[in-house]
Amino acid sequence: MHVPDGFLDAPTSVATGVVAAAGVGIALRKARAELDDRTAPMAGLVAAFVFAGQMINFPVGAGTSGHLLGGALAAVLVGPWTGALCISVVLLVQALFMADGGLTALGTNITLMGLVGVFVGYAVFRLTLAVLPRKVGSVPAAAGLGALVSVPAAAGVFTLLFAVGGTADVAVDRVLAAMLGWHTVIGIGEAVVTGLVVSAVVASRPDLVHGARGLARPTSLRTEPVGEVAA
């Protein structure tokens, strides 16, 4: 999904840079309401996990690559605004130290993965959770579906940007077919990974999962020892 330098023309790159800057600026303010002393360390762990997951790249064609995005996972675990910041930090580090994506395309990549991927994934998560039983056990399934939809959604938005300002001599329909085809497959893998990770965290510490707040926990039958009855 990383868009390289020069793949989109200057006006399109500037426009996505403005969108990314505005989104990150809003996220910096909104994230304060999502984090506290207990959940703040989770943001660092999420960023590290997403960074590791994005290191596995799959060639898609036309100069682009595909990989796990982690947007829905981050949004469910730490909240959409904090999740957007986590993904943005990961993309910044990759662009600065690993030449992954390029600095002139940083705004585009943040827009696609840090904004579209996060907020589409979280919106689908919330819509799915609204129709499932309101319990903690529903969170992993809803998170997985959010991840599944978020990946091809980001790929679709990239194709729209390429149609507007693409510089490569490649037909838009070819780019669309390659991006949606590969990223649908990647989305399935991301759904599985997201569901498993969220399930593991929910099973041990549901209080740290942003998407599980306010949901009923499964009840357990508690028995008290019965004293001996005198004859």
Describe what you observe in this structure.
- The chain is mostly helical and 231 residues long.
- The protein has one domain: Arp2/3 complex 21 kDa subunit ARPC3.
- Helices cover 64% and strands 3% of the residues.
- The protein contains seven helices and two strands, in the order ααββααααα.
- The protein has a two-stranded antiparallel ribbon.
- A hairpin with a 2-residue loop joins strand 1 and strand 2.
- The mean pLDDT is 87.
Low confidence ranges: none
Average predicted local confidence, pLDDT:
87
Q: What is the N-to-C order of secondary-structure elements (H for helix, E for strand)?
A: HHEEHHHHH
Number of strands: 2
Shape: globular
State the main characteristics.
231 residues, mainly alpha, Arp2/3 complex 21 kDa subunit ARPC3, two-stranded antiparallel ribbon, 7 helices, 64% helix, 3% strand, globular
What is the structure about, briefly put?
The protein is mainly alpha-helical and 231 residues long. Helix content is 64%, strand content 3%.
